[in-house]
Amino acid sequence: MTRHLAWLAMAGVVAAPLALWQAPAQAATPRDTVVMAKKIDDIITLDPGEAYELSGEEIVTNVYDRLIRFEAEDLTKMVGGVAASWTISDDSKTFTFKLRPGQKFQDTGSTLTAEDAAFSLQRVILMDKTPAFLISQLGWTKDNVKDLVKALDPLTLQFTTPNKYAPSLVLNLMSSVVGSVVEKKVALQHEEKGDFGNGWLKTHTAASGPFKLISWKPNESVTLEANPTYRLGAPAVKRVIVRHIPEAASQALLLQKGDIDIARDLNPDQLKTLAGDKAIKVETFAGSDTYYAGMNLAYEPFKNPKVRDAMRYLIDYDGMVNSFLKGNFFVHQAFLPKGFMGAMNENEYKLDVAKAKLLLAEAGYPNGFEVRLDTWNSSPMAEIAQSMQQTMGMAGIKVNIVPAEQKQVLTIYRARKHQMAALSWGPDYLDPHTNADTFSFNPDNSDGAARKPLAWRNSWDIPELTKETEAAAQEPDSAKRETMYLDLQKKVMETGPFLIMFQPTFQVAERTNVKGMIAGITSDLTYYRKLTK
Q1: Residue 4 falls inside a structural domain
Q2: Domain with 83 in it: what CATH number?
Q3: In CA terms, which of 120, 179, 256, 527 is 20 to 30 Å from 26?
Q4: Taking the CA of residue 37 as centre, how many other CA atoms within 13 Å lie in the half-sphere pointing to its CB?
Q5: CA separation (Å) from 18 to 35, 36, 215?
C-alpha cells in the first residue's frame, strides 16, 4: 500500500477495503491534496436550490458555476460565470444573458445550455426552500416564474421582473447561491414526487464548477476532486478534503503534525501557541457580520434620541478591539460591512463619558437609569456585554446582564420583549439592500406586522426612512445608489436604535507550503481553486 493510500484511509475517504489498513503515525498529506480542518456539521444539503448553511454554501460555491459571480481573482468585481455577457432593458425589468459556448457538465459531459440555467432559477422558486426568498423578492412566484424566466435559444437566457429594481441588486442576487446552474436532465432523472431532484441533489451534484463532489460524509468529511473541463482550467491541486474537526485544539495539533494543511477554526489561544512555528503561517480575512446592541424604543428612556446618542458614547470600542477582541474584530459603526458597495467606513463615536452625561442630563436622566441587557452566554458576546456594563455604569446607567443561549435571546428579541439586546447580524447576499432591508426598513410597526425586520424588533417606526430604503433598491444608477446607502447608514448611525460596534475578522492557519486560500466576506466567496501546494 502506498503512503498516499495509507493517508487517505486514515482520512476516511476511500473505499471500504482500504479502510482496513492502518495509516502510519503523523502521515503527511499527499502533495496533490490539500486537507483543511473545519466545523462542517451545519451541512444539511448540497442542493444549491436549498443550501443556506455556511459550510454548505461554501462547498456549493466550489462545485457549481453560477450565472455571474465575483471570482477569486478579484472579489470586488462582478464578472460573467456561465454567462459571458448580459444586457438590461431601458425600463430595468428585462435581463438577457448570453452564455459561453461549449461549457460542459462534470459527470455527463453534456453541453450546458440556457435551458439548464432557466430551469435552475425556476426550480428555486418552485421548490420554495430557504434560499427562494432571495429571488422571490423580485416578484417571481410558482404561478409566474416559468413565464418570466425563459431560454430564448441554447445560449440565451432572458428573465423579466414584474416591478422595477436596481439592476445592481438583481445582478447581485444572480451572483448568489441561487444563481448556480444545475443540469436539468440529471435533476429530472432523479426526481421523486415532483421534488425537481432535490432528494438526490442533497448528496449528489449535477454541476460544471471547478471541483467535483466525490463524497460527503455528514459530520466527517467532504472530498472534492479537480474538474479538468472547468471553463477557467483545472484547479492546481487534484483534491481538496474538508475534515470535520470541531475542537480547535485538535485542529492545531493536526496542523503542527502535518496531518492537515489548513486549520479554519482556531481561537486566539491556539494561534498564539502556533506563532513560533516556522512551518505555519496565519492569514487574516474580514468577515461580514455586524455586532451590535438593539435598544427597544418601547422602553421609555430609549424613546428619547439624546439617550440613544448618549449610549453610543458609553462604549469602549477601541479598548475592546485592543484587548480581548484583538485580532478578531475591528471597530465598524455602520450597518453595511466594510467590503460592501456603499459601506460607510468612518467611525463617529468613541468612549466619552462626559459627553454622554451631558446628553443624559439634557434628556432628563441626570442620574442615569436601569436597563436589562439580554445577550448570548458565549464568547465574545459575554465579554462585550460586561464591557458595556462597566462603561455605561460610569454615567449612572445600571445594566443588568441576562445571559442565555442564542436561541433564547433570539426568541425574546424577535418578539420585541427586550429592553436592550446584544447580538450579531449576517448579510444574506452581496448587495447593500440585504442589510438596509432590515436596519432602515419597517413598513408596519404594529404588533401584527407581516414583516418583522430589525427596525421593527426595536419598535422604530420610520415611514420616511422606509421610503428612502425602497428608493435605493430601485435606483438604476449605481453611483447614486451608493450615495443613497451612505445617507441611510449615517441616519441609522446617528438616530437609530442600534449601537453598532464591530465587524469580525477570522484567521486561517496554514502550513507554509500552502498558498492561494481565498476567503471572502461571505461563505460563498471562499474559493479553493487557487490553492497550490
Answers
A1: no
A2: 3.90.76.10
A3: 527
A4: 25
A5: 19, 22, 16
Confidence check: pLDDT of 2 > 70: no
Helix, strand or coil, per DSSP, at residue 99: strand
Q: Which three cell numbers stand for residue 206?
A: 449535477
Give ∠ CA 38-42-45 in degrees, rounded to 5.
115
Q: Which three cell numbers stand for residue 360?
A: 443624559
What type of residue sits at position 227? Answer: N
Residue 275 binned pLDDT confidence (cut-offs 50, 70, 90): confident
18 CB neighbour count, 10 Å cutoff: 13
> Which residue from 408, 397, 334 is spatially nearest to 375, judged by alpha carbons?
408
- Convert the pLDDT of each residue in 337-351 to its tens digit: 999 999 999 999 999
> Is 92 part of a structural domain of the chain?
yes
The pLDDT tens digits for 213-242 are 999 999 999 999 999 999 999 999 999 999
Quick: pLDDT tens for 474-503: 999 999 999 999 999 999 999 999 999 999
Is residue 258 domain-resident? no
| Coil/strand/helix, residue 84 | strand
Which amino acid makes up residue 422? A
Host domain of residue 158? 43-209
- 0.90 exceeded by the pTM? no
Q: Are residues 349 and 449 in the same domain?
A: yes
Residue 299 and residue 189 share a domain = no
Asked which of 11-20, 239-248, 263-272 is least confident by mean pLDDT, the reply is 11-20
Q: Is 500 part of a structural domain of the chain?
A: yes
Residue 286: strand pairing partners? 505
Strands 398-404 and 370-376: parallel
Nearest to 236 by CA among 5, 3, 31, 526: 31
pLDDT over threshold 60, residue 19? no
> 373 Cβ partners below 8 Å, 6+ apart?
293, 385, 388, 389, 399, 400, 401, 402, 419, 420, 421, 422
Rounded to 5 degrees, φ, ψ at 298 are -75, -15
Cβ atoms of residues 64 and 205 within 8 Å: yes
- Residue 485, H or E segment: helix 478-495
Whether the Cβ atoms of residue 81 and residue 70 lie closer than 8 Å to each other: no
The answer to whether residues 103 and 181 touch, using CB atoms and an 8 Å cutoff, is: no
Q: CA-to-CA distance for 533 and 528, rounded, in angstroms?
A: 12
Instruction: State the cell numbers at 520.
Output: 471572502
Residues 455 and 322 occupy one common structural domain: yes
Q: At residue 216, what is the residue type? A: W
Contact 102, 166 (CB under 8 A): no
- Whether the predicted pLDDT of 15 surpasses 80: no
